[in-house]
C-alpha cells in the first residue's frame, strides 16, 4: 500500500478514520468535522461495504502472516494490553490524597488511550484487508454488477493513499486500462459502453495531466515515458473495439482514439520543450502544461 504513512499511520488521521468507520457502522456520532474527512471517505466506504457484503475470496496466507506480524509489532510498540506504570504515578499515589486521586485517574486515561490505539490498529487492519479482499473479489466487475461500486471505491482509496502526483498519475492510467477492459465487455450496450469510455477518457486526462505536470516542473522528460507507453498499448486495444462494432460504438471509440493521439502529441511537444531548455509552460489545459515550440536558428 503506497505511502500509507501519509493517511492511516498519521495519528490524527488514523483516529479520525476510526471514528468515521465507527459512525458508518452505527456507532456514536462525534459531532465534529475534519478537513481530512473527504480524503478518508473512500476508505470508510470500503470498510462499510465490506461489513455489509463480505467478499468470498480467501486472503492469501502470506498476506495474513505479514499483517499479523505488523499488528503484533505495532501493539508491542504502542504498549497495547500493558497498563503503563510510571514512577511519577506511584509517587503521586503515596504522597497526598490529591495525588492519589490523580493517580487513580491516570489508569483510566491510559485505558482510553489504549482503546483509541486499538481502534486505530483495527482501522489499519480493516483498511488493509478491505482493499486487498475487495480488490480481488471485484476486479472483474463491470457496471451493473453488485461489486462494481466496491471496485470503484477501492480505486479511490488507492488514490487517497498515493504519495505523489506521479504515483496518482500512474494510477489514473491504470484505471483507464481497467475501464477499457470493461468497455470490451459492454460492446453492444450503447449507453453502458459510452459511459465507460467517458470514464476511461476522464481517467486518461487526469493521469496525463499529473504526469506531464510533474515532468514540466522537474524539467525531466523521463516521466513522459510512462505516458508514451500507455498511449501505445492503450491505442492498440482501443482499436480492437472497432471490430464488429455498431455505428454508434464506432463513433464513440474514435473519440477515444483522437484523445490518445492528442496525448501523444502533447507528450512529444513537452519532451522537445524540455530538451531545448524552455522554462515550464505557463499555459495549461486538460492534458496539463501546453508548451511553446522550441526556437529555431535562422
Give an account of the 3D structure.
With 298 residues, this protein is mostly helical. Helix content is 70%, strand content 1%. Strands 1-2 form a two-stranded antiparallel sheet. A hairpin with a 2-residue loop joins strand 1 and strand 2. Helix 1 packs across helix 2 and helix 7 runs parallel beside helix 9. The N terminus is likely disordered.
Briefly say what this structure is.
Helix content is 70%, strand content 1%. The protein is mainly alpha-helical and 298 residues long.
Element layout with pairings:
Blueprint: H1 11-24, H2 37-52, H3 61-78, H4 87-95, H5 97-138, H6 148-161, H7 165-185, H8 190-218, H9 224-240, H10 247-275, E1 284-285, E2 288-289
Antiparallel strand pairs: 1-2
Helix pairs in contact: 1-2, 1-5, 2-5, 2-6, 3-5, 4-5, 5-6, 7-8, 7-9, 8-10, 9-10
Give a quick set of tags describing it.
mainly alpha, disordered N terminus, 298 residues, globular, two-stranded antiparallel sheet, single chain
Amino acid at each position: 500500500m503506497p505511502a500509507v504513512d501519509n493517511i492511516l499511520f498519521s495519528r490524527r488521521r488514523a483516529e479520525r478514520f476510526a471514528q468515521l468507520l465507527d459512525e458508518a457502522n452505527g456507532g456514536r456520532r462525534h459531532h465534529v468535522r475534519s478537513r481530512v474527512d473527504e480524503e478518508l471517505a473512500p476508505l470508510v466506504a470500503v470498510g462499510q461495504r465490506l461489513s455489509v457484503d463480505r467478499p468470498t475470496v480467501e486472503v492469501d496466507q502470506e498476506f495474513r502472516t505479514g499483517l499479523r506480524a505488523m499488528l503484533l509489532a505495532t501493539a508491542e510498540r504502542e504498549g497495547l494490553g500493558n497498563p503503563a506504570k510510571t514512577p511519577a504515578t506511584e509517587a503521586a499515589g503515596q504522597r497526598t490524597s490529591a495525588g492519589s486521586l490523580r493517580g487513580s485517574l491516570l489508569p483510566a486515561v491510559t485505558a482510553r488511550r489504549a482503546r483509541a490505539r486499538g481502534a486505530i490498529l483495527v482501522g489499519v487492519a480493516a483498511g488493509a484487508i478491505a482493499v486487498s479482499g475487495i480488490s480481488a473479489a471485484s476486479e472483474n466487475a463491470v457496471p451493473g454488477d453488485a461489486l462494481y461500486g466496491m471496485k470503484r471505491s477501492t480505486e479511490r482509496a488507492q488514490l487517497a493513499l498515493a504519495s505523489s502526483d506521479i504515483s496518482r498519475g500512474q494510477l489514473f492510467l491504470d484505471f483507464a486500462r481497467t475501464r477499457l477492459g470493461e468497455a470490451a465487455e459492454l460492446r453492444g450496450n450503447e449507453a453502458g459502453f459510452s459511459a465507460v469510455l467517458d470514464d476511461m477518457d476522464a481517467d486518461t486526462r487526469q493521469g496525463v495531466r499529473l504526469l506531464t505536470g510533474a515532468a514540466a516542473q522537474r524539467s525531466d522528460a523521463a516521466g513522459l515515458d510512462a505516458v508514451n507507453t500507455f498511449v501505445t498499448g492503450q491505442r492498440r486495444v482501443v482499436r480492437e473495439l472497432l471490430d464488429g462494432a455498431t455505428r454508434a460504438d464506432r463513433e464513440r471509440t474514435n473519440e477515444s482514439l483522437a484523445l490518445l493521439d492528442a496525448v501523444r502529441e502533447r507528450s512529444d511537444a513537452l519532451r522537445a520543450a524540455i530538451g531545448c531548455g524552455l522554462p515550464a509552460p505557463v499555459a495549461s489545459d486538460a492534458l496539463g502544461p501546453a508548451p511553446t515550440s522550441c526556437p529555431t536558428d535562422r
